[in-house]
Amino acid sequence: MKADCSLQVRSPSELVAALPFLMGYHPHDSVALVGRRGRDLDFGACFDLPPPGLDTDAARAATREVAAGILLQEPDAVVVIGYGPRRRVTPVVVHVAEALRDFGVGIDDVIRVHEGRWWSYLCEEPRCCPPEGNLCLPYDSVIAAEATFLGQVALPSRGDLVAQVAAVQGPGRAAMVVATEAARRRFGELVTGDRDTKRLRRAGRAAVREAEKRYRSGATLTDDETAWLGVLLTDPAVEDYALDRIGRNEWRVGLWTDVLRRVEPVYVPAPAALLAFTAWQLGRGALARVAVDRALAAEPGHELAGMLHQVLGFAISPGMLRRNRPAC
After folding, report:
1. Domains of the chain as residue ranges with CATH
2. Each residue of 16-48: b (16+ CB within 10 Å) or e?
3. What is the pLDDT of residues 89-128, one digit of tens each?
4. In what order do the strands lie in the sheet with 30-37?
């Protein structure tokens, strides 16, 4: 997740309130890491708490792997925030902080959030960090209102985010079954005879451009058009064409989310990976992650989804790639 926003965060309380909007959902039983470069929040990452009873050495190894990924971001400092009860959160955030320090990464704060309160592990001043914890800012706080005004949304849980990319059901699914059968027949007719590859890719490019035109204007694709695009995206050259055209446009999230949700399961990997890449470009790492998970569940060896899985696992932001790109 790239913390690419205009929110002014002035205190730990405001950071705790802002983080769900930066992540896209309210974390539960997890650990978030927010990197700072200068005065700016530069990136964020989130991972689930290890299951209870996990071997200590295994837990340390897992946290060191996370810390190694954070190191690639070259932050000036990091805030570690654990969500959950003290007995589960404390060992994990302590291990993460220790691993980051071992790698030479500065720690601004280590915080635990649970049941409407937050505690700092680094502050021992009762006036600002009382033993009973600080109350979290309310959902209608100024920072929440600012985030909402900027168009950011904090869903209740990661499960709600997963639901946003889940397959449509009911009459919508039945209609797509019919549309997909027609698209398959059309595809078969397209690739019979000479020069079938050129015809296929020409049709794929046209379908991608039409979809972009439609969603850029606020319209959508019909069931037949969605099914046809999904079938055409099985050709790697068509998928690459769509990938090369992806920019930092919010309407592209709507386009690839819609296609992903509507296509039949066998056609999920390409639109899921394209949605993941789009979301990653826009700094919406949590959405990118759930889209990658859908792609890999459908096709574990999908090349683009596998690459994005690695990128997200190491919390690599688009900004980092731009900073490290060699000059022409």
Report:
1. 12-157 (3.40.140), 165-324 (no CATH)
2. bbbbbbbbbbbbeebbbbbbbbeeebbbbbbbe
3. 999 999 999 999 998 999 999 999 999 999 999 998 888 8
4. 40-48, 30-37, 77-83, 106-114, 117-120, 134-135
271: which 2 tokens? Answer: 């639109």
How far apart (Å, rounded) are the C-alpha atoms in residues 110 and 123? 9
Q: Which residues contact 40 (CB under 8 A, 6 or more apart)?
A: 3
How many CB atoms are located within 10 Å of the residue 164 CB?
Answer: 16
Task: Using alpha carbons, select from 185, 237, 181 the residue that is nearest to residue 207.
Answer: 237
Residue 293, CA distances (Å) to 81, 160, 258, 259 in order:
24, 15, 17, 16
What are the C-alpha distances in Å from 19 to residues 31, 75, 312? Answer: 12, 17, 18
- CA angle 305/208/221 to nearest 5° reads 105
* Tokens, residue 210: 């039409």
146: closest CA among 318, 302, 8, 291?
A: 8
Residue 323 pLDDT greater than 50, yes or no: no
pTM strictly above 0.85: no
Q: What is the pLDDT of residues 141-162, one digit of tens each?
A: 888 888 777 667 788 888 899 9
Tokens of 83: 């969500």
